[in-house]
Design a protein that fits this description.
The protein has 301 residues and is an alpha/beta fold. It has one domain: Spore Coat Polysaccharide Biosynthesis Protein SpsA, Chain A (Alpha-Beta Complex), CATH 3.90.550. The chain contains 7 helices and 13 strands. The strands form 2 sheets. Strands 1, 2, 3, 4, 6, 7, 8, 9, 10, 11 and 12 form an 11-stranded mixed beta sheet that branches. Strand 1, helix 1 and strand 2 form a beta-alpha-beta unit.
């Protein structure tokens, strides 16, 4: 089986953070968060990385990353825009919000023909996660079997506000049975709660959630395209609707088209949702360098 590809979703607007956090420097030498994922992916046996970016940051993204690892791993860039894969009848010029993670995935269809992992640019996942994904994608993935790395909800919160997480439901064998996107999760005293409107739901601290750390067989593109067409029809006049990867995962499971294995490997996570998260991320990365988990400079010759 071919070595897997890493797909990095880097087209977000970073509205709560206040800028393009996917290209902001956090490491001791100004490394972006995604550089650690690429570094870990190379070590784990990935041999291609595909970036999904906005047209506005394409040249800057190339300028930042190609000199650093362009000779270490094959690198491609794909644009996600508000008219990407959107037929004229469904295009709304008033729309500002991107269409979401599953739309981003679908934009990469022509660049990926092998098993692949999907991650966010602004999340640190840890080498264990990339190793687990690589192992599965090299040995176990099939058109009817995909995977995700699960993270305990207690380890993936922000101290500075609510977060959105795909809360997992699963069977005794560790296969995903469903996922609910909860968009307003935070700590309340000793409890972890989703509170939105009149809805209040307590979530167990060790319940796995999706941090958008997936592994797929390329057959997923065909199913995603089918669901994308249905999404556009259903939400043609909703300017804030988003097409999420969990929607695709749930549909595959509900229709009996595929199973999704929840992998262990979600040991370490941190990320930037709010500007206030920045200092903690900087400190966490410095600690990993100080411990020797990463070299003094990721891309030293």
């Amino acid at each position: 089986m071919k070595n897997p590809t890493l797909l990095i979703l880097a087209a977000g607007l970073g509205s709560r953070y206040g800028g393009d956090k996917q290209i902001d420097g956090f490491g001791p030498n100004g490394e972006t968060i995604l550089e650690y994922s690429v570094y870990d992916a190379i070590k784990a046996g990935f041999d291609k990385v595909v970036f999904i970016v906005r047209k506005e940051i394409l040249e800057l993204t190339k300028e930042i990353f190609l000199p650093k690892f362009g000779d270490k791993i094959k690198t491609e860039f794909v644009i996600q825009s508000l008219d990407s894969l959107v037929p004229g009848d469904y295009y709304r010029k008033e729309r500002v919000k991107p269409y979401g993670t599953a739309h981003a995935l679908l934009c990469a269809r022509e660049a990926i023909h092998e098993p692949f992992a999907v991650i966010n640019a602004d999340d640190f996942y840890g080498k264990e996660a990339l190793t687990a994904l690589s192992g599965f994608l090299k040995s176990s993935v099939r058109p009817d079997l995909h995977c995700m790395v699960g993270y305990a909800i207690k380890n993936v919160l922000s101290e500075h506000g609510t977060v959105s997480r795909g809360v997992c439901e699963y069977d005794e064998e560790g296969y995903l049975t469903g996922m609910v996107e909860r968009t307003s999760i935070s700590r309340h005293g000793n409890s972890i709660m989703h509170i939105e409107g009149n809805e209040e739901i307590e979530i167990a601290p060790d319940n796995p959630v999706s941090m958008n750390c997936w592994g797929f067989h390329p057959s997923v593109f065909e199913q995603t395209e089918r669901l994308w067409k249905a999404f556009l029809e259903e939400h043609r006049d909703n300017l804030k609707s988003e097409f999420y990867i969990p929607k695709v995962a749930n549909s595959l499971i509900e229709e009996g088209l595929a199973k999704i294995k929840i992998l262990e490997g979600g040991k370490t996570w941190f990320g930037v949702t709010y500007t206030q998260d920045r200092e903690q991320v900087i400190a966490s990365l410095k600690g990993l360098h100080d411990e020797g988990i990463y070299p003094p400079s990721l891309w030293e010759k």
